[in-house]
């Protein structure tokens, strides 16, 4: 009995060591709490990394401007009921705005939005807010096709340089594109990229290989290899990993990337990358909310406002004059004299493109985006809806 | 001299039945020991362990919202533990709860997706529930049959069946059931196919509580339950007693799989409101711990599943509030489970140290 008592006392003592300070958990603060549900974490060096950089920069800027905000992040959340729980938990914790960074989160986020009608829920990259009948849901994306076009210009300059130097013949200016799925977001981006390249290298053609996954380093590398075997001398990608860049370098061809700068892993191949910079959106949305200004239910970022950016050009391998050509195109896009999807610049099955042939019939918002001589991408809803299969781009497969 | 050399430092021997008070003292003690060991990983992250434990409790029971989350978390655990308990009683190691839940979820989803607008609410839910039970039962009966007929290894067989079921969903969500092409996502079910709520929680909690009572009766007061117990104690005794052991195995797996299937139905219709490849989300494995810690007693499993749910929901809150990585919370949960399971060893066995042995010999 004595022994038992001694053990019990010893255990009690262990606990009392840590008991101090347990009570002072809550100190009264009136900060606006911001929640962020993310599919990966800062460490993925790709998708979520880019979002977290934007969010952290926005929070720092808000604090510097005197806003009292506090960020709470739920990391590594799956596209399932766990996403509902993550949103609910953040709302229960007192978050007034909750951002979700993956397309697949939206339908789960909406369930939480029904339970917390006073909390603002933002589904980044998706498109349901305009049609879901809820007042507290929002979407945002950016005109990434503008960034793709500029990246395409850099790629086209390189291809033209190879032709001019006699390294390849004009009909060998083949671009290989590693796509995730035959999904509007991918098709829109790759078409813009191709049109950018063709604007400076008229003989350029493009082959597309879809891998059927947003993130699979091995499949992405294999797709890049297959494209190079079919004659591609320039690789680009819409997938999360850097393996297409490293494959391009191994095989001695060039590359442009997405989401983050890949010149570090493939300095001899990667020219630049384009990405969305979310800082401005996060900052504006949160500041508007605190100031009582209504936020738009759907927002599309633009290159002219710094929301679509290209990473620094790898001048060691870029063709001479690339920077100037990119700046010229960017300025023309900004002043409205250049439209990426100018319908006089491309054809579909040999004919002038129609709205029907270009508009994604699965997009949440439907309508006519083809007028004034160009296709108005990301104007009816921020998430891309261009799905036209234009002449000059050959799909090697399709993966829905 | 030689005698003493041969005696090991610690000798183990089976104990006689212990005083129940002492048994509970050991069990509670083991939890306290686990909590103390658990302080180490928390201290490494630079947090106050006591505060962390308070946060876990606050984040799982502190408000009605967290309490509901905890209950929601406990429902599938309890349901699946009930399902596998008769198998374990029979010493048939069904570790395929995961696959049986998934199979049930697929069968239920088929009706939710295709018949939501064709059937009224209650009949639709009943059809989904029945279909799920059949789906789970088929998934469980296959390894049951092979074990009974060809004496295959049920552990491996049930485990492999898990991956097949999960693979089928992966195919469905990128294929026939995919919503918008390219999204790899099955849309949410129609409201018609979603379980109603009682006290703010889907009625899955009532279903599993009813199952607790039914399972308790089945295991303790029916002929079938008795047969299971006899086979578990001694396969040969059961055979000499004239039982058709093979059939009892298949029958028990049918019951087990059907209950897992119903859990799958609760998960898709009540919790997820759609189906994803990780619908079972490890429940089939964690339920083994629940069943074991509950000594296969249906009522004890309520408490155990609740404790595990507190840990899961509380740790998620811990991560959010103190920034403790979720891996650390998992380590603490692991230590707790290890100690809780490990203490059963000290209840059943006695440790005798060498010095004591010597004394006994002299006396």
Top CATH class of the largest domain in chain A: Alpha Beta
Low-confidence parts of chain A: 19-27
The main sheet of chain A orders its strands as 12-10-9-8-6-7-15
**What topology, given as strand order, has the largest sheet of chain B?**
1-4
Considering DSSP H and I runs of 4 or more, what fraction of the residues of chain B is helical?
A: over 70%
Average residue pLDDT of chain B = 87
Query: Number of helix segments of chain A?
Result: 11
Secondary structure elements and pairings:
The complex is a heterodimer of chains A (400) and B (363).
Chain A: H1 2-19, E1 32-37, H2 47-64, E2 69-74, H3 81-92, E3 95-100, H4 106-115, E4 120-124, E5 137-142, H5 144-164, E6 174-179, H6 184-200, E7 205-210, H7 217-229, E8 234-238, H8 243-250, E9 254-258, E10 270-276, H9 279-290, E11 298-301, E12 308-310, H10 322-335, H11 355-358, E13 370-371, E14 374-375, E15 393-395
Parallel strand pairs in A: 1-2, 1-3, 3-4, 4-5, 5-11, 6-7, 6-8, 7-15, 8-9, 9-10
Antiparallel strand pairs in A: 10-12, 13-14
Chain B: H1 2-6, E1 10-14, H2 20-44, H3 49-61, H4 64-89, H5 97-114, H6 121-150, H7 154-174, E2 197-198, E3 201-202, H8 204-221, H9 223-233, H10 235-240, H11 245-272, H12 283-293, H13 298-322, H14 326-348, E4 349-353, H15 354-362
Antiparallel strand pairs in B: 1-4, 2-3
What does the model show?
The complex is a heterodimer of chains A (400) and B (363). Chain A has 400 residues and is α/β, with parallel strands linked by helices. Chain A has two domains: 5-142 and 277-305, Rossmann fold (3-Layer(aba) Sandwich), CATH 3.40.50.2300; 144-269 and 317-395, Rossmann fold. Chain A has helices at 2-19, 47-64, 81-92, 106-115, 144-164, 184-200, 217-229, 243-250, 279-290, 322-335, 355-358; strands at residues 32-37, 69-74, 95-100, 120-124, 137-142, 174-179, 205-210, 234-238, 254-258, 270-276, 298-301, 308-310, 370-371, 374-375, 393-395. A seven-stranded mixed sheet of chain A has the order 12-10-9-8-6-7-15, sandwiched between helices. Chain A has a six-stranded parallel sheet with strand order 2-1-3-4-5-11, sandwiched between helices. A two-stranded antiparallel sheet of chain A has the order 13-14. In chain A, α2 links the parallel β1 (32-37) and β2 (69-74). Chain B has 363 residues and is mainly α. Helices cover 74% and strands 4% of the residues of chain B. Chain B has 15 helices and four strands. Chain B has helices at 2-6, 20-44, 49-61, 64-89, 97-114, 121-150, 154-174, 204-221, 223-233, 235-240, 245-272, 283-293, 298-322, 326-348, 354-362; strands at 10-14, 197-198, 201-202, 349-353. The longest helix of chain B has 30 residues, at 121-150. The interface between A and B is large, with 37 and 40 residues.
């Amino acid at each position: 009995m004595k022994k038992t008592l001694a053990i019990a006392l010893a255990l009690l003592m262990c606990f009392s060591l840590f008991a101090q300070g347990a009570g002072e958990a809550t100190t009264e603060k009136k900060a606006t709490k911001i929640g962020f549900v993310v599919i990966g974490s800062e460490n993925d060096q790709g998708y979520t990394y880019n979002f977290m950089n934007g969010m952290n920069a926005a929070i720092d800027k808000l604090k510097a401007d005197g806003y009292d905000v506090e960020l709470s992040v739920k990391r590594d959340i799956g596209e399932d009921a766990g996403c509902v729980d993550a949103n609910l938990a953040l709302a229960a914790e007192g978050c007034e705005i909750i951002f979700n960074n993956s397309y697949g989160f939206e339908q789960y986020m909406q369930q939480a939005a029904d339970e917390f009608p006073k909390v603002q829920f933002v589904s980044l990259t998706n498109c349901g807010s305009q049609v879901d009948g809820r007042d507290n849901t929002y979407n945002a994306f950016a005109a990434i096709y503008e960034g793709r076009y500029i990246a395409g210009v850099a790629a086209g300059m390189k291809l033209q340089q190879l032709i001019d130097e006699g390294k390849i013949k004009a009909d060998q200016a083949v671009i290989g594109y590693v796509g995730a799925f035959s999904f509007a977001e991918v098709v829109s981006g790759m078409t813009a990229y191709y049109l950018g390249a063709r604007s400076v290298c008229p003989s350029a053609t493009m082959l597309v290989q879809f891998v059927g996954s947003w993130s699979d380093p091995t499949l992405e590398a294999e797709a890049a290899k297959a494209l190079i075997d079919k004659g591609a001398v320039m690789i680009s990608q819409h997938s999360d990993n850097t393996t297409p860049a490293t494959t391009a370098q191994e095989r001695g061809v060039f590359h442009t990337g997405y989401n983050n700068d890949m010149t570090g892993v493939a300095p001899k191949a990667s020219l630049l990358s384009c990405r969305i910079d979310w800082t401005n959106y996060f900052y504006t949305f949160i500041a508007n909310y605190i100031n009582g200004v209504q936020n738009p239910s759907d927002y599309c970022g633009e290159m002219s406002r710094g929301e679509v950016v290209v990473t620094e050009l790898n001048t060691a391998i870029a063709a001479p004059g690339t920077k100037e050509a990119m700046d010229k195109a960017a300025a023309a896009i900004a002043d409205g004299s250049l439209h990426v999807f100018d319908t006089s610049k491309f054809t579909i099955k040999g004919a002038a493109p129609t709205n029907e042939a270009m508009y994604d019939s699965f997009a949440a918002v439907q309508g006519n985006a083809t007028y004034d001589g160009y296709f108005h991408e990301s104007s009816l809803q921020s998430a891309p809806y261009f799905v036209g299969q234009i002449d000059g781009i050959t799909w090697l497969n399709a993966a829905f | 001299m030689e005698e003493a050399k041969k005696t090991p430092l610690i000798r183990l021997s089976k104990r006689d039945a212990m005083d129940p008070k002492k048994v509970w003292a050991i069990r509670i003690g083991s939890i306290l020991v686990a909590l103390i060991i658990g302080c180490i990983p928390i201290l490494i992250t630079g947090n106050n362990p006591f505060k962390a434990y308070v946060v876990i409790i606050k984040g799982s029971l502190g408000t009605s919202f967290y309490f509901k989350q905890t209950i929601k978390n406990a429902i599938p655990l309890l349901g699946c533990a009930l399902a596998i308990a008769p198998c374990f009683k029979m010493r048939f190691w069904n570790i395929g709860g995961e696959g049986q839940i998934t199979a049930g979820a697929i069968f239920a989803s088929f009706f939710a997706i295709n018949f939501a607008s064709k059937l009224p609410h209650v009949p639709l839910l009943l059809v989904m529930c029945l279909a799920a039970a059949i789906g789970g039962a088929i998934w469980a009966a296959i390894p049951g049959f092979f074990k009974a007929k060809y004496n295959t290894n049920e552990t491996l067989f049930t485990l492999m069946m898990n991956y097949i079921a999960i693979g089928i969903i992966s195919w469905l969500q990128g294929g026939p059931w995919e919503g918008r092409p390219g999204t790899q996502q099955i849309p949410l079910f129609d409201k018609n196919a979603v379980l109603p709520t009682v006290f703010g929680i889907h009625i899955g909690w009532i279903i599993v509580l009813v199952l607790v009572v039914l399972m308790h009766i089945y295991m303790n007061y029916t002929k079938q339950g008795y047969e299971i117990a006899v086979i578990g104690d001694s396969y040969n005794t059961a055979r000499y007693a004239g039982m058709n052991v093979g059939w009892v195995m298949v029958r028990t797996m049918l019951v087990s799989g059907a209950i897992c299937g119903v859990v799958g139905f609760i998960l898709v219709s009540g919790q997820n409101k759609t189906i994803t490849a990780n619908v079972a989300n490890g429940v089939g494995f964690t339920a083994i711990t629940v069943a074991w810690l509950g000594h296969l007693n249906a009522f004890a499993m309520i408490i155990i599943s609740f404790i595990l749910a507190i840990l899961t929901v509380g740790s998620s809150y811990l991560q959010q509030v103190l920034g403790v990585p979720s891996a650390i919370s998992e380590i603490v949960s692991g230590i707790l489970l290890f100690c809780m399971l490990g203490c059963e060893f000290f209840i059943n066995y006695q440790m005798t140290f060498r010095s004591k042995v010597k004394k006994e010999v002299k006396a």
